[in-house]
Amino acid sequence: MILPDPATPALLGLDWGTSSLRAWLMDAQGRILHAHYARQGILNLPDGGFAQVLSDIRTQWWLADTVPMLACGMVGSINGWRDVPYLPAPAALFQLADGLGVQPTAHGPLHIVPGVVKDGPLPDVMRGEETQIVGMMGTDGGGHRSVVLPGTHSKWAKVEGHTITEFCTFMTGELFAVLMQHSILGRLPATALPDEGQRDAAFVMGVRTARSGIPLAGRLFSARSVVLRNLLERAYTADYLSGLLIGEEIHAGMGAMDMTPQATPVLVGEQPLCQRYQLAFTTLGYPAPSIAGNTAPAGLFRLACAAGLLDQAPSRFHDQKGAVT
Amino acid sequence: MILPDPATPALLGLDWGTSSLRAWLMDAQGRILHAHYARQGILNLPDGGFAQVLSDIRTQWWLADTVPMLACGMVGSINGWRDVPYLPAPAALFQLADGLGVQPTAHGPLHIVPGVVKDGPLPDVMRGEETQIVGMMGTDGGGHRSVVLPGTHSKWAKVEGHTITEFCTFMTGELFAVLMQHSILGRLPATALPDEGQRDAAFVMGVRTARSGIPLAGRLFSARSVVLRNLLERAYTADYLSGLLIGEEIHAGMGAMDMTPQATPVLVGEQPLCQRYQLAFTTLGYPAPSIAGNTAPAGLFRLACAAGLLDQAPSRFHDQKGAVT
């Protein structure tokens, strides 16, 4: 028996969102061989659209058409390349793998992970995060855990074994952005050079307001009042507001997801933002959650395995003349 | 004894805010003789600034320099004509009258009502609304009541006799505007002509989410999800979001201000917005509050009386040649 070369590309994984695209070339063990990042989200595609972007990536990495492709994110939405219907929660790993959509391309089928929907009077949706959650799932297949994916639209999810049972979206990142860019809260010009220690102090001050008992709508304006009353230098308004919104998310998330203070979730996402969440958790008296980093490639790999996409003929690099080596 | 002509102008009252200016010419009984509205708030003054705007109004109404002037609103802020310090709550009518700032002008002193501040770890401020609240106060001088002033920065206040004892700001109007104009929630284009009945239904649907037990941050995204899940036509997203935010304000305000369901507040402001608040109150199971309209001129008149501004020589119109008649 001939073992495949561990450096042989076995999967092209893509996290294709609204504003950006991340691609990973992985081997048959899920190790990342190459990574690619571009601001080529579904809302800012170049001429040639989806097909051109995909072709460029495959060409850049000299991939044979036999290397399977799996994408997650808004590429599977109604505004994406192919509308892949949401799966209802609770959604198990195998159901996500069975529900892959298929978009034919010049390089073979592009498989696309479905999003997940929570129906009811207050429906909620995710698309892309289900793959990150799969990437975070333990291989033991047991246990209950919860995951927080901070971001523009933060997601809080509960996981039982290999199933996403429940989730909730918080518009924390987008609220922060629109309030700082377009509301009166961002209209106080900075007068000092922000100091890292003071930035953290302002952030913590904002987080603490989550414990005031006053709901968010009645606390937002304090980002202006604390400056007017000289409790905060205006240069730190953004940190205070960030703390106020993240504190609210954690306070509300721990309640809405019915979590015990001990059941601190795992943080999935970029390091600097996750570290701010850690600080907010501890400020509110919870243990510091662990940070899992970006689990999208692991999730894509696991879903590709579950869907049998890797059970194909071994894939190869093209050489520079286009022949398969 | 000669009684003054009831049509003789006795007070020029101004509500001079961030984006607009309202002026009223009143007689010695507080009746409005003339009203003037212009988009000449402190952030969009014409060449010539504050002094020119004031001169134009006085010229338009042929006012003698003996007619006293009282203004409220952002004209008294640090970005206004003269920074008039906030008075701490609880603030009584007589304290507001004693705390008037004075800006000298070519037509005599412009008196300016101070704002009110609530100090503490979560400070809050109002400037302009204190005058509307004074205008709403009963002349009996007794009783406890509460006032809601819907708007960009809605204010909820408690009043005991002639004293503003407590208040809280909700950024409802501004949140609505920035989310509709700049967030993903406003990005779903309308596909149908909004129908009035359906607009109310969408508004009520948004209001009802306040009772879900899920905090605001975890419900905002539903303004998108209900459309994606075909529970709401996208043309009614604005009404749903408006209901969601106003419902939150009422739910949170009744809690934060420690109000019993029976202690329904009085609504002060423009009729169409106050009617939407009425609908939200009844949707959430409260009695419909009464609407007091715009009470700023009554407040300016009452404060001018309390400050003794009307105890001057009777004021007269100029004739068109500038002589006092």
From TrEMBL, chains A, B:
* One GO BP: D-galactonate catabolic process
The entry's keywords: Kinase, Transferase
Q: Which Pfam families match?
A: DGOK
Q: Which GO terms of the molecular function aspect are on file?
A: 2-dehydro-3-deoxygalactonokinase activity
Q: Which domain of life is it from?
A: Bacteria
Where are the coiled-coil regions? none
> Where in the sequence is the signal peptide annotated?
none
From the Swiss-Prot or TrEMBL record, give the protein name.
Answer: 2-dehydro-3-deoxygalactonokinase
